[in-house]
Amino acid sequence: MAVSPLISQSPSSASVSTSTASKAKSLAVRSESQSATASHLNNATAALELAEQMNENVRRKYVKDNKLGEGTYAVVYLGHLRDTPSSLVAIKKIKVNAEYRDGLSMDAIREIKYLQELSHPNIIALHDVFSSKDQNLNLVLEYLPLGDLEMLIKDGNIQYGVADVKAWMGMLARGVWFCHENFVLHRDIKPNNLLIASDGEVKLADFGLARSFADPYMNMTHQVITRWYRPPELLYGARQYSAVVDVWSMGMVFAELLLRVPFVAGNTDMDQIAKISEAFGTPTEENWPGVTRLPNYVPPGDRITPLQGREFFLRQFPTAGPLGADLLMSMTTLDPCKRSSVRQILQHAWWMSEPKPTFKESLPRKSGGSKKMGNDLSRRAGEDSEGRFKNAARQLDFGVK
Ligand code: AMP
What we know:
Bound molecules: adenosine monophosphate
Keywords: ATP-binding, Kinase, Nucleotide-binding, Phosphoprotein, Serine/threonine-protein kinase, Transferase
Distance between the termini: 31 Å
CATH architecture of the largest domain: Orthogonal Bundle
Strand order of the largest sheet: 1-5-6-4-3-2
Largest sheet: 6 strands, antiparallel
InterPro entries: CDK (IPR050108), CDK7 (IPR037770), Kinase-like_dom_sf (IPR011009), Prot_kinase_dom (IPR000719), Protein_kinase_ATP_BS (IPR017441), Ser/Thr_kinase_AS (IPR008271)
Shape: globular
GO cellular component, one term: cytoplasm
Number of domains: 2
Protein name: Serine/threonine protein kinase (Kin28), putative
EC number: 2.7.11.23
CATH superfamily of the largest domain: Transferase(Phosphotransferase) domain 1
Helix content: 25-40%
């Protein structure tokens, strides 16, 4: 009999299920570590039966409804609590992949591990985990019905202004701050992973590429973060990096919210570096000491763009105002050692300046909501990006974690 995974975090069930689960686990551990006497074998069997029963209890709590969407490693369904059908959830069913010996992808393991640890209004909540009869793993997540920031950016019928951008960026910054305070890197921040709750709250989702960064000298893979949101140190192959990789991605989301089109959208990793250099300045030993020693560093040739200053950011992003332009510049500093931390970002004067961030309930929303007028950031014409946000980082090799 296979052992079913058991994780329960829903506010209603967490305390009961967790204590019973740890009892079950300690039973199982004890019976493994001691000699195989009959009584211990009985304990192990009892633990497995208990685990199966608990999984069954969790599974029976939910009813799966229609399909909401599909990602690289999971299909997402709408669901509801059997006892209270008005309580909606999203059930993410992990696709079993023959490539993985145990049938579970690393993405699923990472997502469960980190969502279990992180509880914050701007991070999607994981309520439960259960395995279905076919041994597929199901993550029961908070249901976020208002789509994601990518949808809003691309929807030409939705008008929004800088006060709305300030509200969305504030929610993103608080979610990322909480991750970093808990030593978790998200490593795939992009508009498509910022889901919106019914009250307008933005929630950081999809922790399939997340990892902890408590040890600064640990080698990590550089093949993370969807290319357009990936910082230059990862494009140059850095194996030791810090939380500011997520800050660069936040800067790219900020720029995209202001322009309504991705700011640096390379077709290949080399093209991405070329576009970053063109936009922000060519990385050199002067503006980024040590850059030339990074594993995938390529000399730029004759075309050197000088490092851009405040005037460039103000010219490119006039709607952000001088303080907003200054904040964006601090997020997109080439040298990671000089880039702001998310804590510094939250202390920036932009948040306190006029206009104040829109209240979350009044933010523009997909379909049905009223269109906001005035102070609109209009879409740049002719740059349709349909289909280009497809989990680029996931298609790469994850040999080094
Ligand atoms: P993912 O595999 O996380 O990229 O999810 C695939 C799609 O399912 C997303 O693009 C959303 O449309 C939808 N989805 C994922 N999670 C949720 C959720 N918590 N609430 C509502 N829809 C979701």
